[in-house]
Amino acid sequence: MFEDSTFESAGKLKTKSKYWMIATLILxxxxxxxxxxxxxxxPEALPTQAMATLLVAPPPPPPPPPPPPPEVKVxxxxxxxxxxxxxxxSKIPKVIKMVKDQAPPPPxxxxxxxxxxxxxxxxxxxxxxxxxxxxPVVKAAPPKKIVVSSGVMQSKAISQPSPTYPPIARAxxxxxxxxxxxxxxxxxxxxxxxxxxxxxxxQQNALDAVRRWRYKPTVLDGVPxxxxxxxxxxxxxxx
Length: 239
Description:
alpha+beta, disordered N terminus, two-stranded antiparallel ribbon, 5-stranded mixed sheet, flat
């Protein structure tokens, strides 16, 4: 019994401890593998609150404080009072002098002549009004150019050759009125002729015809003058 308890039991204990260590190692590896594989196979088994805490981004840092407002300097304003300068007189004067304005000087020249319309003395105005019978009479020069309506100048026409109808305008069935502006000279000829409005195809023929027109000279106060007027040339298609 003694040998069995000393020598033989040693071999039995070693053999059992060896298998026991292997079984324990396999058990531990299995538990660790199960703990690793369960979250991968069943992710819903993980705690939701813990996962949300890990996945939520941290809040942004607070904005920096605004800069302080600029300092406002208060400048004191010195107000001068007029109370010290405006003082009442200490004594009331017994005599108050009245100040009278001086009369303006009498008018000279033409103003004096206007007071006496029958006399001849005075300046320019007085000489004309007072001495109208003695002084020279000045006549205003007639204007060099006047504006007359087309109706009045039509009555003074001497010769008005009709314009030729452009064949291209006739073929295109174009008609209308060409309005021209012209200066009729002192001798009744057409000067400074220009187009105001009208169909473009008819303008040149109207200019060629009106340049040959002649009018009676316009006389103003016995002096011939130039006349500014408008001339209308009508083109009508004859069916």
